Amino acid sequence: MTSQQKTNKEILLLLLKATSMEEVNSLIENHPFFKSCGWSPYGGNEFNAGIINAQSPDPVGALVEKITNGIDAILTKKCIEEGIDPTSETAPQSQQEAIKKYFGDKVLNFDISGKEVRELASKTVRIFGEGSAEKPTISILDFGEGQHPSDFSNTFLSIAKGNKIKIKFAHGVYNSGGSAVLKFCGSGYQLILSRRLPDKLGEREDSWGFTLVRERWETGYKSEWYEYCVVDNEIPSFDYSPLQILPDGGVLEGGTLIRLYSYELRNPNFFITGQRERELAREINKRFFSMPLPIEINELRTQLKGWSEKNKATRIYGLWRLAKKQIDDEVVKKFIKLKAELGVFGMRDIQILIMNDEGKDGKSYKNLLEKIFLTVNGQAQHTESVSFLKTKCLLPDLAPYMLVHIDLSNAGHQANKIFRTDRSGVIEREELWTFQQRLTESIKGDETLKELNREYRDRKILNSQPEDKDLNKYIGKLVHDNPFLAKLLNIGVDIPTEKPDGPKESYEGQYIPTYFEVDGESEKAIPVNRYGKIRMKTDASNDYLSRETDRGELQWSTSKYVQVSQFSLRNGFLPIRIQPTEGAKPGDQDIIIFELTRPGQESLMVEMKFTISEYAEPKINPQGPPTPPTRLALNIPKLVPVSESEWSGRYWNEMDITEVVEDQDGIRVYVNQDAKVLKEFPKRNPQFSSGDMMKTIKKHYLASVYLYAVAMYFDLKETPDKRDWAIPMALKSISKFILDLAFTARKRELEED
């Protein structure tokens, strides 16, 4: 080893001991190595800050890119070890294929034990947290292919080189995401250490290579830039030997170690191994929603309050895999799979987990704001919130307990029409709106989800007070006597009425169906500008198309003129949505053969004839005469008083006032009848504490909150996403003075008497 190599190794070991930006600053200022080394611009571009800083705006999202690169490196290593060119046609053509080939079906389907998860995670990607509580230094280690020092500039330190664009099983494409972490590092300090696979060295020496990246700014420049250290214009290196350098004392023989100094996590004082909301492991689980391989996280900041050996290490493998592991216990109530045509993404599975709302209800899942996850190779590209399910899909009571996954891994370049390349959001364009519309229709129209929403709703209000007919009459009279109020609330025009719940019949179904036939005519006309529905009958059990074992499939022949856009199976009926293709015109006809497969048996077949009919005018619901006053109370949204015993079911407390929800059965206004503002009013005004007076006060309070809430609900009709938070927030303020305003005059009368 030359003297320069010895110096290189010496400074590397010092950098590995440093756990803060301040310590790195001190090394740069005082160590001879940095007096003589040079600095090269990151990506070969002195104006790189604009590109780098435009990457992921989220520190956890940026960190996930490092995990993605690590998993790509591991799969590439496996491919190279088999003597296969990762860019060739003989290499795996998807990430799923690579996982299956190199790790087996059990890992692909995540059918592995806790012990197997621990063993695998220790050999894939490991994350370490060290240093201060406020700004920890994060290290990411992967046991992948590694890179030779001479290749650093074209791999780790490049921007938009497209190094992985021909590797079909790699998640990364544009070679940009790896730099996203730099803006979250203290002074941009990032240490990179790597060793290439020995069998890919060729004539090159077997060496460790490393460099330090930093942010630089000088007087006279309008912007900062990022650069990395070099020695004689080359990446610092030294001869290979195993290094006992891992933060936990372990030995490193190859792969890549990335060290991010003084990293700006949003909740740095939390354990990075923690699974609570906003803790790092939890946040990674959300962003890497269905992780291809499990990884390990290590918390080495023993000074954190509550630290123990229990939270020293954890294994994570994505929120979806974690939830699916709990299907057989009390956390997950049901697994549902829908199929729908989702615009630019074509026919897709919509996988839905329903969490239990009783007993061990998986509270951590219920409290998630994100509910719909669109993933590519397990990494979340975009999410939709609980509000999407509540307001657009009309599942307000079920939505908090839902977890929805749509895998778009094989979407290819089509995904680029909707998702930003840095996975920071979506592009507002027609393809996105079509996708959202189709997704809404599929979830909203599923009968199983409707029924579950009713079940969860009814359980919440099981102990509610019986309907107060006097209160309903009181509200009806208020509206009836005030034409302006009736007009404001749009009473009797388009407010859905409460649908009575009919008797519910149990349905078992056959494990393997015995028949499959059309419910109705075997011919169907579909307007060229609309979609049509057909309905099949079968005796298959409800889980026949979604269960893991002995699952059947609905298949169909292709057609030039019509296409299947949605279907679901429920209680012996299989409704199928059919829509014309882009080139269809009136008069076109075709036949589709539908096939319901049966494991180990012949499929069941049905033939349907379709005709494209003329353009159909959109349906317009005319505004008819106002509803007669005698039926007014039946047409207004239902008021549901909520008592203190029911707070837990709604996650309410004494400060909550109201919530307005709409589902397939109508609109409901939940009002807290044990709210603090209502209880405190007679305490402040003892003259109103008599029984009869309290009844009047309570009636007025409930009616006032109800009317305010309904008015706001319809006022926010065009912005439904705001309803979830705007109405409860506003009524918390309004409720404070409702009673005082209403009873001021009455108070004076009592005082004069």
Q: What would you note in describing this structure?
A:
By secondary structure, the protein is an alpha+beta fold. The chain has four domains: 3-315, Heat Shock Protein 90 (2-Layer Sandwich), CATH 3.30.565.10; 326-459; 466-494 and 630-752, no CATH class; 516-613, Immunoglobulins (Immunoglobulin-like, Sandwich), CATH 2.60.40.10. Helix content is 30%, strand content 23%. The protein has 21 helices and 26 strands. The strands form four sheets. Strands 1, 2, 3, 4, 5, 6, 7, 8, 9 and 10 form a ten-stranded mixed beta sheet that branches. A nine-stranded mixed beta sheet has the order 14-13-15-12-11-20-21-18-16. It has a four-stranded mixed beta sheet with strand order 17-23-22-19, with no helix packed on it. α5 (59-81) crosses α9 (280-287) and α20 (691-715) runs antiparallel to α21. The longest helix is centred in the C-terminal third of the chain and has 30 residues, at 723-752. It is globular and about 95 Å long. Mean pLDDT is 85; it is low at 492-503 and 620-634.
